[in-house]
Amino acid sequence: MKAPDNPFFARALVNRIWAHYMGVGIVHPVDDFSLGNPASNDALLDALAKDFLEHKFDFRHIERVIVNSRTYQLSAKTNDTNKFDRVNYAHSYIRPMIAEAVVDVLNSALGTSETFGKEVKPGAKAVEVGASQFQNPALAYTFRIFGRPPRTTACDCERTMEPALPQKLFLMTDDKLLAKFNAPGGRLQTLIKSNKSDEETLDELFLATLTRLPTAQDRKYFADHRKMAGTRREAIIDTMWALINTREFILNH
């Protein structure tokens, strides 16, 4: 497969890597290389495949090339000239996170961790856990509703990436997720017990979830809610709950 004169292997692999980071492959669907489904940019696909081959199929190298590109770093905000573009990468495409990433970002935001199974080292991320190592049935539902496949077939279509109502209900009401709000060593309980001001607390909540500082409007909403909330604890928990239920948190953009 890795023979330099094989015209298919490198193109297929870089196309899958590109699709993972961009949300859509240069050939899309990624497993449909055919004359009836040409690449959106054949020169780009050839250039990436050539670079991949020259670096002896180094995945980390080609990932760095892609994520350091201007294309990958484009904003999802559109203008009149590119708002309907779906093939030329004129802007970033908003897309759901994979199930493993959802589990990881929730734990990162809440300052908690998961126990995946005896074979998995403590502190591991969901994206690091192979299907054969996963032994925690409590997380099976989360993975399933966010599209992680049971690995019963070899088809790429087995993983679903479409948003669905159970995902929103999970973020709003799942008892195991909400229990993490009260985890003794978690971010929220640490903030509640800290001497940080309301402004500093809000900054940390936004950085932990949306990786940005709150806007003036965000600060006003928080200040208004802080006055209405019965306690500081209630205001902090309500704010975190609201943030993880935003599209800005749960979508790649």
The run of helices and strands is HHHEHHHHHHHHHE
Question: Which runs of at least 5 residues are low in confidence (pLDDT < 50)?
Answer: none
Number of strands: 2
Q: Whole-number radius of gyration?
A: 21 Å
Portion of residues within helices: 40-55%
Strand order of the largest sheet: 1-2
Shape from CA axes? globular
Terminal CA distance reads 35 Å
Q: For the residues shown, what is the average pLDDT?
A: 90
| Secondary-structure-derived class | mainly alpha
> Please, how many helices?
12
Strand content: under 5%
Largest pleated sheet:
2 strands, antiparallel
Task: Give structural attributes.
253 residues; mainly alpha; 2 strands; globular
Describe the structure.
By secondary structure, the chain is an all-alpha fold. It has helices at residues 9-22, 42-54, 59-67, 99-110, 140-145, 165-173, 175-179, 187-193, 198-209, 216-228, 232-244, 247-250; strands at 95-96, 251-252. Strands 1-2 form a two-stranded antiparallel sheet. The longest helix is centred in the N-terminal third of the chain and has 14 residues, at 9-22. The two termini are 35 Å apart.
